[in-house]
């Protein structure tokens, strides 16, 4: 019985460390996804605002890709609305350490003011 003293403590430390590694990897993954999602939303919002103020959809697309060079950007006009959609692939590590990619999306809609200047 004297050979097993402290083994329960050692097992608890090893299991606790393994759980800590898994939880920290999950938190880092969620943080990266959230950060990328916010960046996609921001790029879409800025591009939509630019398009509604200046009426130039091509420049709005360049603005969004200037914020996120690796993103896929679509700018459309539906009546008095400009819709900008941004898709961004986020590289992550899978549970076994293999590379995994997830796509986050940002979307913004802005209404063109009928009172804006026609420059």
In round numbers, the mean pLDDT is 89
Helix-strand string = HHEEE
| Annotation field: number of helices | 2
Quaternary: single chain
User: What is the strand content?
Assistant: 25-35%
Which sheet architecture does the biggest sheet show?
Answer: 3 strands, antiparallel
Radius of gyration, in Å, reads 24 Å
Residues in helix, %: 40-55%
Global geometry: rod-shaped
Question: How are the strands of the largest sheet arranged?
Answer: 1-2-3
Low-pLDDT ranges: none
Number of spatially distinct domains = 1
* Beta strand count: 3
The class by helix and strand makeup works out as alpha+beta
From the N-terminal CA to the C-terminal CA, the straight-line distance is 89 Å
Question: Mind explaining what this structure looks like?
Answer:
- The protein has 119 residues and is of the alpha+beta class.
- It has one domain.
- 50% of the residues lie in helices and 28% in strands.
- The protein has two helices and three strands; from the N terminus they run H-H-E-E-E.
- The protein has helices at 7-54, 57-67, and strands spanning 72-78, 81-93, 99-111.
- It has a three-stranded antiparallel beta sheet with strand order 1-2-3.
- Helix 1 runs antiparallel to helix 2 (57-67).
- The longest helix has 48 residues, at 7-54.
- The N and C termini lie far apart (89 Å).
- The model has no long low-confidence stretch (mean pLDDT 89).
């Amino acid at each position: 019985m004297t050979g097993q003293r402290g083994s329960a403590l050692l097992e608890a430390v090893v299991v606790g460390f393994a759980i800590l590694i898994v939880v920290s990897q999950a938190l880092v993954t969620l943080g990266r996804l959230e950060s990328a999602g916010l960046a996609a939303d921001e790029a879409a919002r800025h591009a939509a605002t630019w398009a509604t103020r200046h009426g130039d959809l091509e420049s709005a697309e360049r603005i969004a890709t200037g914020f996120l060079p690796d993103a896929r950007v679509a700018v459309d006009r539906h009546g008095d609305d400009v819709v900008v959609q941004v898709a961004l692939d986020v590289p992550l590590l899978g549970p076994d350490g293999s590379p995994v990619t997830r796509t986050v999306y940002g979307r913004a809609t802005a209404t063109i003011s009928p009172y804006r200047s026609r420059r």
